[in-house]
Amino acid sequence: VGQCTDPPWFSFASRLNKTDESSFPIGTSLMYECRPGYFKRQFSIICQQNSDWTSAEDICIRKPCETPKDPENGIVHVHTDIRFGSSINYTCNPGYRLIGSSSAVCVISDQNVAWDNETPICQIISCKDPPSIANGDLLTTSEDYHYGTVVTYRCRSDARGKKLFNLVGEASLHCTSNEEKVGVWSGPPPQCIELKKCTPPHVENAFIVSENKSLFSLRDIVEFKCQPGFSMEGASSVQCHDLNKWEPELPICFKEVICSLPQDMSGVQKELKMKEYYYGNNVTLECEDGYTLEGSSQSQCQSDASWDPPLAKCVSRTNISLIAGIVFGVIFILLVIVCYWLIRKYKK
């Protein structure tokens, strides 16, 4: 009673008068000095009548680092402030990559504070020379293809300007970046294809079962087959038409979805449980003898392997009879009670 315990450790200040005492009488004063990183200052805390020490909060003030500057073609982000212990981040504008550290912390430096990393550099992103194409060339060329540059391809013609090739693909590409680090072109270059020819068609998760060629002639037919585990939607055969068009529309190979009936479903006919159902298949549930179906008798297999509407249940008729008996029993008891009450009331 009438004493203060040893004061807490302060991250911002150190005690000047060292002592091994663990308790201090009322009125005791202990001297502190603000640590490096804070403006140098001495202060004291005093043991009060309520056995608490006076507060030391906000006495030591953190020193500020120099105001950081935006890197050229970039931005500095100050999250809280620029005082001791605070951190900042740097980002570059689109089309520039950051060279150096993307962050800095205000730390102790000699008798003062400073940022622990220098301001980074934002370097413009460039792409390699655009790829050349057979039977075609670029409309314009440059020594440097920096971020945002657009290049356009064209197919060669004869001396009279007569068209010799069809341009297949995107005629123009632009220089972009991969995660703001490496310059890349926005897509593959186009192709210059002989007139009345088609490039090989591509279907994801499928392979060509007919003869494969580097170029197909008009009216050539290509036949596809899906990879194992995939199902085809659309025509399996397509034909080459003018302007590098395949008709009808290329098919799609989608992953097979298999739905099944839960093995713990009681009362459902066993042969239904043994089957596999694919996306779009319907199942008509039938119960074994002694069970009654509750819910919709038909459900359809969905793309996420679920059933819509949810699968019905086969409920034992014994359970139904038991429930019905309990319900009728309760109703009967209630009727007896009501009749008894009415008879007593009538006699009165």
From TrEMBL:
The chain crosses the membrane at residues 320-343. Keywords: Complement pathway, Disulfide bond, Glycoprotein, Immunity, Innate immunity, Membrane, Pregnancy, Repeat, Signal, Sushi, Transmembrane, Transmembrane helix. It is found in: Membrane. Disulfide bonds join 4-47, 226-253, 287-314. It comes from the Eukaryota. Residues 2-62, 63-124, 125-194, 196-255, 257-316 form the Sushi domain. Pfam families: Sushi. The keyword Membrane applies. Its main location: membrane. Signal peptide: none annotated. GO terms for biological process: complement activation, classical pathway; female pregnancy; negative regulation of complement activation. GO terms for cellular component: membrane. InterPro entries: SEZ6_CSMD_C4BPB_Regulators (IPR051277), Sushi/SCR/CCP_sf (IPR035976), Sushi_SCR_CCP_dom (IPR000436). The keyword Disulfide bond applies. Interacts with C3b. Belongs to the receptors of complement activation (RCA) family. PANTHER family: PROTEIN CBR-CLEC-78, SUSHI DOMAIN-CONTAINING PROTEIN. This is Complement component receptor 1-like protein. It comes from Peromyscus maniculatus bairdii.
